[in-house]
Write a sequence for this structure.
């Protein structure tokens, strides 16, 4: 028998995984449910938003996520004394979503970064009043996992959210249609979950079946993350544009010892113990 969630009172039971302190979900729909459940949220958009945030924050930048295709972004950047990232294809834009390019960002840079998935989910998580919002990826999986393990040890629930991609909408506009689960975000989320389990010595009973499945995917792919990301649909899309360096940068597991936490609208390095 198929039960439709909308027909059941308290339908959040289908998605909030309340029995488990370490949880996993996909996209904005799961993010909304898990934010309302009082979780710390980890937004994972490996290609490329959360990787770009990890790289920039590890180098001392501060990053404001902003909704994609929002005409007010430029004014927002001016108001905050920040640079507005543009397209990597635009020679007039010094910074973009490219994590490979952001390895050269100077400490103290203030950057507004837009994207259809990770930035939009970050803004949504903040609006919903999540307990905390972290930008996670393969590059900072160990740092984020260690930080999360301490939160779980203190009794806090954690949800790792794979952003995924979006199909075109019926008019053909990219990124506005239904969710397309993306393997790179599954692997990034699974890597963070695996590092959290390892750092905290968490038993199976503390990890939801959804989170265990993501962790298993990561462990199966861990021996060749560059190959897996390069061969993925999203990786092929970036490679077709000549951006192999972004894919390889994103695949460099545990390269950044940083936990980017969203405070006052911007991602910044989490202070020790915070």
């Amino acid at each position: 028998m198929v039960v439709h969630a909308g027909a059941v009172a308290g339908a959040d039971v289908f998605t909030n995984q309340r029995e488990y302190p370490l949880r996993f979900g996909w996209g904005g729909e799961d993010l909304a449910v898990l934010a309302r459940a009082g979780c710390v949220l980890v937004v994972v958009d490996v290609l490329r938003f959360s990787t770009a945030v990890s790289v920039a924050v590890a180098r001392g930048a501060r990053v404001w996520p902003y909704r994609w295709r929002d005409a007010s972004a430029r004014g927002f950047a001016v108001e905050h004394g920040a640079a507005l990232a543009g397209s990597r294809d635009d020679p007039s834009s010094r910074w973009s979503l490219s994590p490979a390019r952001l390895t050269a960002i100077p400490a103290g840079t203030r950057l507004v970064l837009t994207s259809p998935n990770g930035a939009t989910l970050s803004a949504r998580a903040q609006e919903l009043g999540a307990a905390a919002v972290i930008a996670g990826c393969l590059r900072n999986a160990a740092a984020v996992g260690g930080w999360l393990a301490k939160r779980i040890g203190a009794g806090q629930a954690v949800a790792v959210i794979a952003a995924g991609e979006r199909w075109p909408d019926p008019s053909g506009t990219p990124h506005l249609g239904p969710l397309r689960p993306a393997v790179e975000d599954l692997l990034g989320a699974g890597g963070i979950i695996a590092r959290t389990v390892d750092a905290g010595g968490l038993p199976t009973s503390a990890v939801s079946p959804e989170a265990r499945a993501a962790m298993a995917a990561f462990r199966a792919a861990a021996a060749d993350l560059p190959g897996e990301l390069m061969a993925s649909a999203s990786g092929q899309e970036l490679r077709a544009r000549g951006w192999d360096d972004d894919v390889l940068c994103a695949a460099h597991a545990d390269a950044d010892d940083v936990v980017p936490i969203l405070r006052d609208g911007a991602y910044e390095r989490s202070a020790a113990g915070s």
